[in-house]
Amino acid sequence: MNQNLNTQPAAADRITRWKGEAEQKIAPFLKRADDTALFNQAKVLAAFRENRVSDHHMNPSTGYGYDDEGRDVLERVYASAFGAEAALVRNQIISGTHAISIALFGILRPGDELLYITGEPYDTLASIVSGPDGQDTGSLKDFGISYRHIDLNEDGTVDFDAVRKAVGERTKMIAIQRSKGYSSRPSFTVAQIGEMVKEIREIKPDAVIFTDNCYGEFVEEREPTEVGVDLMAGSLIKNPGGGLAKTGGYLAGRAGLIEKCAYRMTSPGIGAEAGASLGTLPDMYQGFFLAPHVTAQAVKGAIFTSAMLESAGMDTSPHYTAGRTDLIQSVSFDSAGQMIRFCGEIQANSPVNAHFAPVPSYMPGYEDDVIMAAGTFVQGSSIELTADGPIRPPYTAYIQGGLTFEHVQIAIMNALRTLEKEGLLE
């Protein structure tokens, strides 16, 4: 056994035993992740070939970025792979939250209503829809656009009775958050999103159905736009960037909606025609090509994490046997101290900034102090191994990413060893 895993003496080491047991239990679920990667790799390769990607498409543009063929072809590749009419893929989009903001402000107009039907969304969305009390920050509320959300049923399903009662003439956009974010509910599968779309079409046929697709790309064989969603958004420093994209975000969906979003991203009359790619295209192309494989590595790491932490007596969600629809693996700890120490060990087993200890602190958009363990090559990258969460009961950390399955294994095992050594593991 490699001594970097600190596994001596093996005969008396319960964590080594847990690893062996986990490897046997999770084998069929790792195979399922590999099969999904193979399917999605074929889909992405077909998109590259269909759009005749060439080496000159990697060339940068500067200034206004007019006639940037590489940028435009990359957007067609995304649209093809995601089964969408069009896509907007730009280095100027700084995050998933920014991509979502572009979607909301691009489509909604004063007097319209945004309705989230999957419960209260990410904390960061609060500043988009209403902003701080008494402050004019240019939120949806400041523009006369109203927002409501429908709480989920106790079993985690959408309360369509409440949705029917809530939908009115002003309801312009109905939104679905695929990933659970910092909540305890399960993430929604693409099949479940497809069923939501059917229900929404019966209730409000002309509604724009939007999905926050962050953390979900390539985890399943289909994307929300392939089951009837009109518009979806995500970040390139999550799944679709494949660990290579240094920044950027995307929107994909109906062509008319993408055009409106492009006008919001730049300005009316310019839209998608401008925006210099600078030197970002090689990483964005190659990252998207690698994304199905890299995403599968992270999914396999999440499955392993669930099995190992369950052996350690912790509550994890989803279970290692469950079907996966995103990268996120949550684990609930007994105390804030145990959670903070675990996240600290994820940082200590990172390739970058391993010698720093994460400290819970205020983060814009969140009500509680948040701990962020992220020793990543790209700042804030969620396709690389990270662990984070708000410091509030039930002290749940959200573990996601991992460019290689092996890295996740090493980090989780060493984190468990530290908890055991410091008396924080039963």
Total strand segments: 12
Could you state the order of secondary-structure elements as H and E? HHEHEHEHEHEEEHHEEHEEEH
Major sheet size, sense and barrel closure = 7 strands, mixed
Tell me the number of helical segments per DSSP (H or I, 4 or more residues long): 10
What does this structure look like?
By secondary structure, the chain is of the alpha/beta class. Helices cover 38% and strands 13% of the residues. It has 10 helices and 12 strands. It has helices at residues 14-50, 69-81, 96-107, 125-129, 160-166, 190-203, 255-265, 281-311, 336-348, 405-421; strands at 86-90, 113-116, 146-149, 171-177, 208-212, 231-235, 249-253, 315-317, 329-332, 370-373, 386-390, 396-400. Helix 4 links the parallel strand 2 (113-116) and strand 3. It is globular, with a radius of gyration of 22 Å. 47% of the residues are buried.
What are the key terms here?
single chain; 7-stranded mixed sheet; globular; 12 strands; alpha/beta
